[in-house]
Amino acid sequence: MNGATGAEMASRAKESLAGLEGKDLTNRDRMALPVQDMPCQEAAERARNMDEVALGYTEAQARVEAARCLQCKNAPCVAGCPVSIDIPGFIGLVAKGDYRGAADVIRKTNLLPAICGRVCPQEKQCQAPCTLGKALKGVDKAVQIGRIERFVADRERAAGGAPMPRVAPPSGKKVAVIGAGPAGLTVAADVRREGHEVVIFEAFQKPGGVMVYGIPEFRLPKAIVREEAEKLERMGVRFELNTLVGRTRPLAALLQEDGFDAAFVGVGAGLPKFMDIPGENLVGVFSANEYLTRSNLMRAWDKERAVTPIYPSKRVAVLGGGNVAMDSARMALRLGADEVHVLYRRTREEMPARAEEVEHAIEEGIVFDFLASPTEVLGDGKGVVTGLRVMSYRLGEPDPSGRRSPVAIEGSEHDVPYDTVIVAVGNESNPLLAKTTPGLAVDKKGHVLVDANQKTALDGVWAGGDIVLGAATVILAMGEGRRAAAAINEYLKEN
């Protein structure tokens, strides 16, 4: 962010666009155009409300940013996209003002552009190999593909939404989708389009998976996710909510007794990890999963209308350095905490969280305690959190991932007062489905093992998303869903 207001950004973009009209741009011209910053709510205001932080591009901003694209023939950005969107194709249409055409191009491979444009880590995927970014020596200088995608999707939504996909005549085949997250929704859409009956089984009371229970409203409005689920219902997909397959009904029974010809497992990785330090069982210690589920899915932030209990916090410690840690810290602030600290064993450079989310958190007043991690959660003798015993670290040699390893500094432990601790150090696969499904092969971490087409060890069963990848991203889960759906459709055609 450069400190300019949304109005100033919009005005500059209009001026830039006026200067581009009728001009045949050279690559040098394109490289000289400034990156269009995203207008956002003011930090002090947004830190206490649940409204979306990023406000979206204006039309002029979207067209100017699209004009920066060099339209590379080798399109390295497409190779970086898990679902292989024709990125130069849709961006070229935006530059010309053909937004409907751009939406049509995106929708050929991405069913959730309004979601992906908001939450996908483009800087690590499609924008990382951008030729313009490399020429200008910085991924932050790359074409802002996600912001343009969001603009196209939001404009289409405002105009009434995308046209309903064509559904083939009934095939007589029936497919079970376990989990209504991004992978499951993608499979359901692609399989239903071929005329197969689709039933989605979801353990929670709302479809959307991590998009509704994990990602906060201020990053992804839940109305967008709800619209996508409703579109599937209009296509004829049926949702069975509050249904925990493996407990409510075994997976094998769906195939052997309930008439399903194939099944897709997309149950995510929702089992939280803890740090295995003393005191983690004290009142006031939460997994990020529980904290965010209460806040997002159960709307604990809406205190006037929701009856969800939420722990009252004044001084909060969030443990971890990923996007979930950022979401937890920023949510705690919005739920009324006076002070929120993020404790991370490395430095900002090593944090896996998106740079934009870290910057937003800093702007909102989140305090980052780098090179620090707890060795014990402290209590008051009555089972309630009073603080953390914190060890200081220095950076050592790089680990296999390339990040420098944290090395504890002996004798550096010190006590810090907190009344709430949120553990956001990752998730593991829930073992329920593997334990209740004989023959479903998993690795030592509980990830379901699949082949190149997402096929599991069981006949007629495919899997994808976080249950295969571990905690990943929405777009990676969708990519696996698309591969699985193509394989399922082929399988049903042959059988």
Rounded to the nearest angstrom, the distance between the terminal CA atoms is 55 Å
Q: Main β-sheet: number of strands, strand sense, barrel status? A: 5 strands, parallel
- Low-pLDDT stretches are none
User: What is the tally of helical segments?
Assistant: 20
Percent of sequence in beta strands = 15-25%
Secondary structure blueprint with pairings:
Layout lengths: L5 H15 L6 H6 L10 H4 L12 H9 L8 H4 L7 H9 L3 H9 L5 H7 L11 H5 L9 H14 L15 E5 L3 H11 L4 E5 L8 H4 L8 H14 L2 E3 L10 H6 L5 E4 L5 E2 L12 E3 H8 L19 E5 L3 H12 L4 E6 L10 H10 L2 E4 L1 E8 L5 E14 L5 E5 L5 E4 L2 E4 L3 E2 L3 H5 L24 E3 L2 H4 L4 H21 L1
How would you describe this protein?
The chain has 3 domains: 153 residues, Alpha-helical ferredoxin (Fumarate Reductase Iron-sulfur Protein, Chain B, domain 2), CATH 1.10.1060; 142 residues, FAD/NAD(P)-binding domain; 156 residues, 3-Layer(bba) Sandwich (FAD/NAD(P)-binding domain). It is globular, with a radius of gyration of 23 Å. Strands 3-2-1-4-16 form a 5-stranded parallel β-sheet. It contains 20 helices and 16 strands. It is α/β, with parallel strands linked by helices and 495 residues long. Helix content is 36%, strand content 16%.
Compact summary:
Helices cover 36% and strands 16% of the residues. The protein is α/β, with parallel strands linked by helices.
Q: Characteristics of this structure?
A:
495 residues; alpha/beta; Fumarate Reductase Iron-sulfur Protein, Chain B, domain 2; FAD/NAD(P)-binding domain; 5-stranded parallel beta sheet; 20 helices; 16 strands; globular
